[in-house]
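Hey, quick one: can you model this chain's 3D structure?
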Amino acid sequence: MSYIEVEGLRKTFTVRKKREKGKLFREKEIVEALKGISFTVEKGELVGYIGPNGAGKSTTVKILSGILTPESGKAEVGGRIPWKDRKEYVKHIGVVFGQRSQLWWDVPIVDSFSLLKDIYKIPEKDYKSRLEELSESLQLGKLMRTPLRLLSLGQKMRAELCGSLLHRPELLFLDEPTIGLDAVSKLALRDFLKWENKEYGTTIILTTHDMEDIAALCSRVMVLGHGQKLFDGNLKELLERFDTKRTITVKYDTADPKLNIPERAEIKKQDDEIRITYLPSDIPTADMLARLQGAGNIREMTLQSDNIDHLIAAMYKEMDL
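Sure thing. Here's the predicted structure for all 321 residues.
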């Protein structure tokens, strides 16, 4: 039996539209957030759960963390039904929402940790050893007496992670944990998550729009769209199938470089920057780079693949959704 088992999960929301002129009541619309998704997750897996805005990612996380109740379907985590066995269940999970906080705004973060210790009934000895371990790994030692409101975004996220892991949860949900973080903070956060997963076998489900987070942390990826599971498998396979578009941004020393780019590539110019979007299957990257180098002396160049939203768009087109 898998650690997480989800079968036929459905969830709808009633949305009231803006009242039209001349009408007394606002019209209602039923939105299907989840349309019967099913999947399993083994204990100790680190899974990327991705998709565009409105795909149903956060709804899934809220159901699996016991916050929401589905209309139909089954979900069990470690033999427990999240929304039915909630009191017992939440002792075994941790949740970090990138735009929500579980810590108290105006008090030092160590006081928030102390309160969480009482909420989770963590023995004093275990609490002290775990807090010391987490504060060292997340570099929180000098920040313990600082109120949450005075911390930077990266420091707040590290504090939130510490609070969610104090009780040593078996399962950690991370919903957009790196949103708004700088490059240094992102790297530190990724290193810590890999360490936590390896050291304690913590099962982690990560939802994010940052492809670098997925590439750095997750070997398995589930892609959600329109409330349906579109893909479940290896990250490499996903990239090979759908990461087909490339964008090159280049700046030349001269104002008028002699570009020799095929018409099937898309070219946009803004000030001294030239952005070229192309398909590697159509124009090999090596050929594209050779053409750009032949156009003049390059001052600055960036080559990047498209982000998750472009991957999802490619999947939508292939699946006619």
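One thing worth noting: The mean pLDDT is 87.
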